[in-house]
Write a structure and sequence with these properties.
Blueprint lengths: L1 H6 L13 E6 L7 H10 L7 H24 L4 E2 L7 H11 L5 E20 L4 E20 L3 E8 L6 E6 H11 L4 E3 L4 E3 L1
Parallel strand pairs: 2-3
Antiparallel strand pairs: 1-6, 3-4, 4-5, 5-6, 7-8
């Protein structure tokens, strides 16, 4: 890029640089290892034998809350996707274009994918069940929205304890929104139009 700018330096008035994608991953550190989860369960009076029932109840409440939020904010509940191979971003982009959604929630989709969780195993040493980490497949929620400042973005949420979350921003979308808010004209290959 610098060679291009140098070659046309008489025509170039400035350069804008930024991020392509920005990904934030969120988790509660004490819940990232079994001993921390055991401490959490002890403090909340959740017995190992009751852990599975407690967890499935929490998951059901989480999914119900997100489903209600989706219905209230975009007119649709959570929509299941049969395979993780289906590109959720394309579904969201198509809906945004078809329904002319400029800002706000575009939709929430669910998909079964790999995740890390905990389950109780009988421990011969202690003589009672102990929680251990294990790799599983569970429902994940994908919320796509167009934020007034950050533009097109998504949130990925694991619905099984410990509920890992990931927020993904698109740097070019953020730049697009910034230019629009400042009234700066630009050509965008994302929308194939000239914005004024």
């Amino acid at each position: 890029m610098f060679d291009l700018v140098k070659r046309f330096e008489g025509l170039v008035q400035g350069c804008i640089t930024g991020f392509d994608r920005i990904v934030f991953k969120g988790w509660v550190l004490p819940l990232m290892f079994a001993a921390g989860v055991r401490s959490f369960c002890y403090k909340n009076q959740i017995l190992n034998k009751d852990y599975k029932e407690w967890m499935t109840g929490q998951t059901a409440a989480l999914v119900e809350t997100v489903d209600k939020y989706a219905k209230d904010n975009c007119g649709r509940g959570i929509e299941p996707i049969p395979s993780w191979r289906i590109r959720k971003e394309e579904l969201a982009r198509d809906r945004q274009k078809t329904e002319n959604i400029e800002t706000g929630l575009i939709g929430v989709w669910s998909c079964v994918e790999s995740g890390l969780s905990y389950r109780a195993h009988f421990c011969a040493e202690s003589g009672h069940p102990q929680l251990r980490t294990y790799q599983t497949r569970c429902k994940h929620l994908y919320a796509y929205l167009d934020h007034p400042e950050f533009g097109f973005m998504n949130i990925r949420l694991q619905t099984w304890f410990p509920y890992h979350i990931q927020i993904c921003l698109n740097g070019r979308e953020w730049l697009r929104r910034s230019l629009q808010l400042q009234g700066i004209e630009f050509a965008s290959n994302i929308y194939k139009t000239h914005h004024r």
